[in-house]
Amino acid sequence: xxxxxxxxxxxxxxxxxxxxxxxxxxxxxxxxxxxxxxxxxxxxxxxxxxxxxxxxxxxxxxxxxxxxxxxxxxxxxxxxxxxxxxxxxxxxxxxxxxxxxxxxxxxxxxxxxxxxxxxxxxxxxxxxxxxxxxxx
Length: 136
Known about the structure:
Layout: H1 2-15, E1 18-25, E2 33-39, E3 53-58, E4 63-71, E5 75-83, E6 102-104, H2 117-120, E7 122-123, E8 128-132
Parallel strand pairs: 1-8
Antiparallel strand pairs: 1-4, 2-3, 2-5, 5-6, 5-7
């Protein structure tokens, strides 16, 4: 009996799953990889290693594409950087300014440091596609 009651619930959850496709064009080289973090929490955004889902994508012909599948409808934010030397972190100079290209969803920026989750967040209510350029 419990199985019969759970089937409609599982079907409804499956219907409310959406995809996010992120395309990054114009990368300066195919060296290294693109690091993409998908965040759901202002407390962890944009800390590398604390993302809801983190992925590393190969770059081909100065382009990278990543898809996050079957996500629930809610607020998300993206943080991306071109890990050109493949060392697993966003390199910075002695002042703390990034030396590798990076960006955030919504083109979010901040005068000093990273933008807030609220500036970068978007609400997922349907399949969504982003075309993002990285800042150097």
